[in-house]
Amino acid sequence: MPRNKRSMVFFYGKLLRAMVLVAVVAAALAGYFALSVYILPHSYQASLVPRKAAPIVTQVSLPPRVTLGQSFAIFVNATNDGDEADVQTVSIGFPNFTGTDSIKVASHNFRQTPMLIIKGKQVGSEYVGAEKPVDAQYAIVEAMSRPWASGNSYSITLQVTPETEGRFVAFVKSIALPHNGNQAHWPQEGVLDQQKELVKVYTVDVAKA
Questions:
Q1: I want to staple 127 with a disulfide (CB 3.0 to 4.6 A). Which of 8, 22, 179, 194 is the partner?
Q2: Given 2.60.120.10, 3.40.50.300, 2.60.40.1510, 2.60.40.1120, which CATH number is that of 55-207?
Q3: How far apart are CA 33 and CA 16, in angstroms?
């Protein structure tokens, strides 16, 4: 092959490699530009949007009346109808009890073991903003799952034995943390309990034998 022809082939080979290199660099710069201008800011902004869990107690079962000394079951089922919660709790308060001797956890499928809280033990209060612990004024059973995924349901069954005749009361509520908005608490209306949180009230008539 003539020398001039070899030089031309060499020149065009270098030119082709240079063009390919320029194209690769241009594509990389375009990809970086798109990533930095469009994709990453949207991802970053999405990460800043607070998750909003929405606890809902879907079922509470207990008998309307029992005989004094007779044990009965309380079944509570709750779900998360919003975003995943770091923690979601189901709380069942018993204003008729100061201790927990008459309360037994028969079964549950929560991720953590339910806690039985007696009068005098500190419990959380006012979850919006800084939490303010208060001393419990009556017995509480608190069950939680950490985390609680969206759409998941957990339930607990308690075996309870009333100690006196008359109106036996149970307070039920569910709270998601972080507490981002009103939807993070169930119920949305009711009465305020000792923790300054809304609860739904359930009652059982306890009669003498």
A1: 179
A2: 2.60.40.1510
A3: 26
